TrEMBL record:
SUPFAM superfamilies to which the protein is assigned, alphabetical: Phosphoglycerate mutase-like
CDD domains found in the cross-reference section: HP_HAP_like
Organism this protein belongs to: Aspergillus heteromorphus CBS 117.55
Name of the protein described by the UniProt record: Histidine acid phosphatase
Top-level lineage group: Eukaryota
Length: 465
């Protein structure tokens, strides 16, 4: 364990001479201010954006830390034996692992992406009887006669799709969860007719692909398929599945405040230089940092260089520009889900139904009515962000690839009445919030923290504007 922590401290120091510990890299104290974006000496604030990512306890966008046998500690009062308690329930949420980008430059990309080492399986099979299908897989290719290829991206991928690095990271993530939570997670997913576990994903191929890798790490010897529960895509409670015009109305309010505009002002020259270099002078590229950050992250996280202009290879995004893009992206995530006056309403509209589903799982445990012991949800950054916001995280950087929240429920054996405590880990460590560090709180307190984010009537809220 000592060696692991040592590595983390050293590599989190970053290239700008700032010395930031692995834990501190998650919580930049200045993230509420636009100076966090403009202060170039902050670099990546101890964050890592490299491939292949080294196992590290710092904020590591390409491979976020997760509960790990070398670093996992029991809750403080359990570890020091002042309380005798055992883990009885785990609600686990994670973003999919790393991938190709969603956003290809309007002017095209100067480097191809390669995905030949991963087969994108897509097939259906009757649940019983009937012929077994041939397990076909999608194999993306670029046809040189396609006239659109010149201003798109060459290679053998879909955009987005999981990469081989993402798949392998997921497998390791699952192995580490097995090592940490092996006493709780059933040794076979079929134990008790499968009633102890609940596996859920969004409708996206990214989260399903991640699940295949992670679950293999958890159950290395399992034979046969496993069900991954999904709601219908048109009304899914994750990944913004259901339609709700109030979401975009509130977002427009949030993105027209003086503070939001200040962040556009301090980044004006950066945005205009990148827009010119990559022919990306449209509002979808320049009104937030989502697209540039996504494009750069996908390059760096999968072993490619930062991009250059297709027509002129001497015009390239610099590392300093990428760092500023990442700081601006972090600032925006913190602003959307924590530091704007309408954050609670926005979280209710976007994520409130899913937060309600999580709370119902926790309440069933509280009432002793749960057969479930382990629920694992494969979702997106856009799901993790609002939930971290609801928990009141002290500062919210963009939840990176494979970022994860573990809601642990512990049963205190010593008290006469059944007494349940909760701990919430974010990327493997007790989350630091405006309610304190959530390392040992009554389960009822955790439910009280989340309750205000569950909408009473989402249908009328969605229609109300
Ligand atoms: C920029 O960040 C550095 C490192 O935290 C700090 O010492 C300096 O005061 C900051 N500068 C400004 C202008 O905020
Ligand atoms: C054990 O840890 C808890 C929580 O940090 C603390 O309140 C308590 O005093 C500690 N007890 C002992 C015996 O060290
Ligand atoms: C795409 O890559 C192939 C294989 O490397 C190469 O032959 C072809 O010229 C490339 N096409 C473009 C438009 O860059
Ligand atoms: C390519 O960009 C460089 C740097 O901006 C510039 O000096 C050069 O003239 C450009 N080359 C062409 C062919 O446009
Ligand atoms: C940032 O703003 C949020 C919400 O307004 C607040 O709860 C938090 O304490 C602030 N953080 C700092 C470091 O000032
Ligand atoms: C956003 O918050 C402000 C300040 O609390 C409030 O006046 C306004 O009504 C809110 N906007 C919406 C759309 O709820």
């Amino acid at each position: 364990m000592a060696a692991f922590v040592f590595t983390a401290l050293v590599s989190a120091a970053g290239s700008h001479g700032l010395s930031i510990s692995a834990r501190d890299s998650f919580y930049p104290p200045g993230l509420n201010h636009t100076t966090f974006i403009s202060n170039t000496s902050l670099g990546t604030f101890g964050g890592l954006y490299t491939a292949p990512p080294t196992p590290d306890d710092a904020y590591n966008y390409c491979s976020m830390p997760h509960p790990h046998p070398d670093a996992y500690l029991r809750p403080p009062p359990v570890a020091n034996h002042s309380v005798s308690a055992r883990l009885v329930y785990l609600e686990y949420l994670q973003r999919h692992q790393r991938r190709t980008p969603y956003n290809i430059f309007p002017g095209g990309e100067n480097q191809p992406y390669h995905c030949d080492s991963l087969h994108a399986h897509v097939y259906v099979a009757p649940s019983s009887q009937g012929p077994a299908p041939i397990p076909v897989y999608g194999r993306a290719y670029s046809d040189p006669s396609n006239p659109f290829l010149a201003t798109y991206v060459n290679g053998s991928c879909q955009y987005p799709q999981l990469t081989i690095g993402g798949f392998l990271d997921g497998y390791q993530h699952g192995r580490d969860l097995r090592a940490v939570y092996g006493d709780l997670i059933p040794s076979s997913p079929d134990e008790d007719g499968g009633k102890k576990i609940w596996l859920r994903s969004s409708n996206s191929a990214l989260t399903q692909g991640s699940a295949g890798g992670v679950l293999r790490g958890i159950w290395p010897d399992h034979h046969g398929p496993l069900p991954l529960h999904q709601q219908a895509s048109g009304i899914d409670t994750v990944d913004q599945g259901f339609s709700c015009s109030a979401q975009s109305d509130v977002l427009s309010t949030i993105e027209s405040t003086p503070l939001w505009n200040e962040h556009l002002t301090v980044t004006k020259s950066l945005r205009s230089r990148l827009a010119t270099m990559f022919d990306a002078d449209t509002s979808s590229w320049t009104s937030t940092f989502d697209h540039f950050a996504d494009n750069f992250q996908a390059r760096l996280c999968n072993g490619y260089e930062l991009p250059c202009r297709v027509q002129n290879g001497s015009q390239c995004a610099t590392r300093a520009q990428a760092d500023e893009v990442f700081r601006a992206g972090d600032w925006e995530w913190n602003y959307w889900w924590r530091n704007n006056a309408n954050a609670t309403l926005y979280i209710q509209l976007v994520e409130g139904l899913f937060i309600g589903e999580i709370v119902r799982h926790l309440e069933a445990v509280q009432q002793g009515a749960s057969e479930l012991v382990y629920s694992h949800n494969f979702v997106h950054d856009g799901d993790l962000g609002p939930i971290l916001g609801a928990l009141g995280i002290k500062a919210l950087r963009w939840p990176g690839m494979g970022s994860n929240i573990a809601f642990e429920i512990w049963y205190n054996r010593e008290t006469s009445a059944s007494e349940l405590y909760a701990r919430v880990l974010y990327s493997g460590h007790a989350i630091e919030t405006i309610h304190g560090t959530l390392d040992w709180i009554p389960l009822s307190s955790l439910i009280s923290i989340l309750q205000p984010f569950i909408p009473e009537d989402i249908i009328s809220m969605c229609q109300s504007s």
